[in-house]
């Protein structure tokens, strides 16, 4: 069993319990459900930096990254550093995040927010909307072609941008869908945690230009971004490199200054 299998199995029981506690018809009544969303894809297109800065307390690959900093300080730091979007991990069991983190971020920043979650059920898409997200992540490794189609259609109808994450050509082939705005290449293999930027470079040629191309994970220097831009990437998702420091916002600021 890979870690991804473990996570998705856990998610299925978690979502079943949540559906009982707060059914979709109640989620639809949450005040934030009616909020007008902002497009993350539009914020990244032709941006000079393209940074999506992530809040991540811990991860299965690294254990604790940072559990001392305050959520609102991290995200306000990211916003003033010039990030174009914020990614908030909402999984609690493996990443130490929560939907409350999303609420705090929503109150704190005005740039688009991505709900970073292992989505295996449409319920979680309604939930993202109810807790103030502007965009959701769909992971091709967790979903069938049919599910990807249905889930991206639902997200679009709720005005949430979709970032569809792939790690190889086979996954990419089922991901080039009309309701998907952004395709993200995860440099980290979620089955064994190996990281290689070459995956982004290799897959970049296969991604049509109508998708905003995003490179995710394992990015820790400005040179890598400059290089990835030559492959057509416009968005860069960075977590650990910022979160592992005492002041993630400050670290992001210095990083982004060197990019301009
Ligand atoms: O911390 P990093 O190496 O900068 O990576 C950030 C982000 O790409 C990573 O957290 C991530 C990418 N895809 C995911 C899917 C689920 C959980 C986490 C992720």
TrEMBL record:
Gene3D superfamilies on file: Aldolase class I
Residues annotated as domain Indole-3-glycerol phosphate synthase: 4-253
CDD domains to which the protein is assigned, alphabetical: IGPS (cd00331)
Record EC number: 4.1.1.48
Single Gene Ontology MF annotation: indole-3-glycerol-phosphate synthase activity
Catalytic reaction list: 1-(2-carboxyphenylamino)-1-deoxy-D-ribulose 5-phosphate + H(+) = (1S,2R)-1-C-(indol-3-yl)glycerol 3-phosphate + CO2 + H2O
GO biological process terms held by the UniProt record: L-tryptophan biosynthetic process
Biological or metabolic pathway of the protein: Amino-acid biosynthesis; L-tryptophan biosynthesis; L-tryptophan from chorismate: step 4/5
Record keywords, A-Z: Amino-acid biosynthesis, Aromatic amino acid biosynthesis, Decarboxylase, Lyase, Tryptophan biosynthesis
UniProt xrefs under HAMAP family: IGPS_B
Family, similarity comment: Belongs to the TrpC family.
Identification of the protein by name: Indole-3-glycerol phosphate synthase
Species this protein is from: Aequorivita vitellina
């Amino acid at each position: 069993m890979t870690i991804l299998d473990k996570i998705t199995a856990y998610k299925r029981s978690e979502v079943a319990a949540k559906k009982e506690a707060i059914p979709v018809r109640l989620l639809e009544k949450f005040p934030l459900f009616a909020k007008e969303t902002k497009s993350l894809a539009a914020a990244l297109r032709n941006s000079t930096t393209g940074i999506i800065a992530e809040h991540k307390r811990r991860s299965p690959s690294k254990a604790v990254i940072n559990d001392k900093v305050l959520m609102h300080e991290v995200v306000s730091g990211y916003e003033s550093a010039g990030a174009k979007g914020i990614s908030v991990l909402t999984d609690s069991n493996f990443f130490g995040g929560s939907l409350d983190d999303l609420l705090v971020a929503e109150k704190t920043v005005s740039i688009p927010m991505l709900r970073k979650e292992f989505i295996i059920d449409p319920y979680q898409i309604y939930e993202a909307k109810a807790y103030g997200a502007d965009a959701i992540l769909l992971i091709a490794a967790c979903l069938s072609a049919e599910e990807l189609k249905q889930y991206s259609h639902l997200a679009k109808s709720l005005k949430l941008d979709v970032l569809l994450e792939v790690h190889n050509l086979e996954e990419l082939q089922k991901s080039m869908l009309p309701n998907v705005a952004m395709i993200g290449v995860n440099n980290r293999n979620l089955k064994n945690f190996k990281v290689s930027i070459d995956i982004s470079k290799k897959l970049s040629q296969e991604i049509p230009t109508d998708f905003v191309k995003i490179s995710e994970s394992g990015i820790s220097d400005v040179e890598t971004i400059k290089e990835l831009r030559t492959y057509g990437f416009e968005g860069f998702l960075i977590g650990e490199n910022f979160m592992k420091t005492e002041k993630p916002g400050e670290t992001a600021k210095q990083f982004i200054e060197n990019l301009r």
